[in-house]
Amino acid sequence: MRTSLRRMLAPIMVAGLLATAACGSEEQPAGNEKITLNVALFGDFGFKPLYEEYQKAHPNITIKERISDYAAHHQSLISHLATNSGAADIEAVEIGYLSSFTATPNRFHNLLDLGAGELESQWLPWKWQQGLSTDKKTLIGLGTDVGGMAMCYRTDLFQAAGLPTDRDEVSKLWPTWEDYVATGKRYKAAAPKSYFMEASGNMFRAMVEQAPTGVYDDADKLIVDGNASVKKAWDLTVDAIKSDQSAKLSAWTPEWSAAFGKGTFATIVCPAWMTAYIETNAKDAAGKWDVAAVPGGAGSMGGSHLALPKQGKHAKEAYELIKWLTAPEQQKKIFKATGNFPSTPSLYTDPDLTGFSKPFFNNAPLGKIFTASAQAVQPQHQGPKQGDVFNTIGAGLGRIEQGKQSPEDAWKQVLADVAKLA
Amino acid sequence: MRTWLYKADTRLSPYLYISPFFLLFAVFGLFPLGYTAWVSLHDWTLLSDEHPFTGLANYRELLADPYFWNALRNTISILLLSTVPQLIFALILAHLVNRRLRAKTLWRLGMLLPNVTSVVAVVVIFSQLFGRDFGLINWLLDSFGLGRIDWQAGVASSHVAIAAMITWRWTGYNALIFLAAMQAVPKELYESATLDGATPGQQLRKITIPSIRPTVIFVVIVSTIYGLQVFAEPQLFAGSGPNGIIGGPDRQFQTLTLYMYEHGFNRGFEFGYASATAWVMFGLIVLIAGANYLITRRIRSSR
To answer: Is the pLDDT of residue A16 over 90?
Structure first.
């Protein structure tokens, strides 16, 4: 992973250096005051080479990065906000947590006051909206990546199960999620020893994220009980579990990581950022993975924003930095390095992006697939406890997978647990 | 004048010498404890600016929550599964190392090694051993034709796996404490017992254990307190997804500390509720440690 990453980064860094050299005369450093900007992220955003580029153009700025894992990052961010000390100047916020901050935006700098309003047209409209507070008066964060969805699959397992392996043919297998589950049944009939999907929770989540409304209505009221598309997603997922399609892996466990390379399962819902995990976890399976369209059209899963906590002292400089980091040029570099897909549509016609492919994924046109997916996303309102609600429902599906509960009991318990969240 | 100073010195100085600990304890122990109690009486959400007083509402809600009782059951089950074998193994191990052995220091140092290992490393390795698809233990079971166990999914199996991690980590440490106490037992007792024909097992039961009674009490209580607060093992066992917070989809291995963590750091950051949980835990630990003291005190003293 490391060496391949470095190999990919090298040309980008060279390009970056050339770019800075070219425009060096325009960008004069603003002040002489030495300023250190702290950036706190979860996982690697691929920013490191960009910092060097930025520091060259702004000699008075030093950038320090700290990385922790997803849950730890957000939890410490929240305690830093609550105690009003310790937060970095720039904090990454994932969409699962973003909605709890847009509901109480007072602890962040309003980027609109710093002049972000003029940049609005850079972003996908829904990505921009996600960063706005409930009253639309405060902008909390500038968008980094979006999780436009696709479906990653193993060509060797598909072949063994007598299914087509060509990605266009595979996409035709599942225009809808019903077709996807039906394909899973065909798969199980031909290859009963392996599994069709890694875990049912992702399929459920993808279906709900594609619906016009998800687990919240526009007034932030929980509608898990009343929303027919949620129930439909649940029932179809239960159908898939009952026909033994799920490998019942829980994400981010050692078993899950190992399963990518070992061919335990054949398909996984694949937001752009997932490609990096597949590549890391399945080094030996290079070329066996391919990418097809996701059933049910498009939808976004995951994606982040960069936000500036109010306690940060250098709001202006920090804003300049996130403005630069999230600008289309930089998002493109990040996509090529890490797979995180840009949220800035001006790139979606850039041949450099649309023509991007990777040998690891059997040269699947990743740029084209994820562009199509990101463009087709219909915005969906996300409520304050979005992440917790999905986790609660995911646990319910897990109980069915592990044979602890009947689908009816699991649904009843999910509704009771979700009601307690409100 | 001299005698007055001398008297004051002998009377007051000891208090002065021990005061640093108590001052630090007051600042870093008592104050947070009191503050937690104060927070637990409020509807205290981390991100909101208002914290209305709600009295005992958090406690009432807590005691009415079946998931709290589930977490308590899990904690006690893991406590018993880990502490009991751990103390028995530690006693036997200490007894063995207490005899004449070659390379004594090597054996004794070796006992401490598991404890020096970081808990994260221990859990990562054990989680892989107990893995469902690619774990060593399942591979062994499978090759003997016994079938695989989904360790995480079951209540008992997940408790056994977690208890194994705790036992592995703390047995040697406790054995060293036992050993230190055993060194003080007069050798003549063993010599005369050997002359009378007592077996090593009898010597352990009739001489060693009664002689080190205060140490046994100490170790039991310390292990109990640790066991009731167990957090890292179950959290890491489930991996870093949402299951690490609720202890599996059915909360089959959610311990009390995980339950507190879930409410404090996940579900809306309800610090008031989490503080109430912390205080209830505190009470439970005092209660159970007290009960343990009364039970272990019944070991007959040799003197």
So the answer is: no
Asked if A250 and B239 come within 8 Å (Cβ–Cβ), the reply is yes
Q: Say how many CA atoms lie within 13 Å of A90 toward its Cβ.
A: 28
- Tokens read off for B62: 């807590």
- The pLDDT of A71-86, averaged and rounded, is 88
pLDDT at B303 over 60: no
User: Can you tell me the distance from the alpha carbon of B179 to that of B161, in angstroms, rounded to the nearest whole number?
Assistant: 27
For residue A82, is pLDDT > 90? no
Report the distance separating Cα A105 and Cα A179, nearest Å. Answer: 42
B250 CB neighbours in chain A (<8 A) are: 395, 398-399, 402, 404-405
**pTM for the model:** 0.85
Q: How confident is the model at residue B124 (pLDDT cuts 50, 70, 90)?
A: confident
B253 to chain A, closest Cα gap in Å: 13
Q: What is the pLDDT of residues A390-418, one digit of tens each?
A: 989 999 999 999 999 999 999 999 999 99
Residue of B1, B168, B12, B141 lying closest to B82 (CA atoms): B168
